[in-house]
Amino acid sequence: MRVRYLFRALAVALALAVVSCSDGKVKVKGVVTLDGNPVEGAMVTFIPEGGGGRNAFATTHQGGSFRLTTLKPNDGVQPGTYKVTVTYEEPVTTAPAGNMRDAWKAFKTAEKQKKPPAKYVIPAKYSDPNKTVLKQKVPPDGAVKLDLQSK
Q1: What DSSP string runs through 78-123?
Q2: Topology of 25-89+116-148 in CATH?
């Protein structure tokens, strides 16, 4: 009889541990496109509506794919409805440096140089948290597609 209760208690403790570890998050993965073309190197931010909860972030990779992170890499996001922003800034490239002083000097020099046009121009209606028209309810399967239009 005691062994049965011990096993039940152990099963309940294990179930609680699994639930508390997952924290109810949904592992969200998705794709960002602009005018039908994948966007690489953009920052995707999910901002909880109503001010509660935590923001989740991702950087798009090849093919415009991303996986959301709240606290740990790719840990997902709490279910709910979110405002979504997508931003893109052309990366600054510098020559390799031997130490931090050289790296900082190269960065400052690159910053002053005329920048080429950005590879992607994300309209403010997607990139500004106060203007974004993107809203996303986190689906149970975690699959999200963000189709942006430049006009």
Answers
A1: -SSEEEEEEE--PPP-----SSHHHHHHHHHHHHHSPPPPPS----
A2: Immunoglobulin-like (2.60.40)
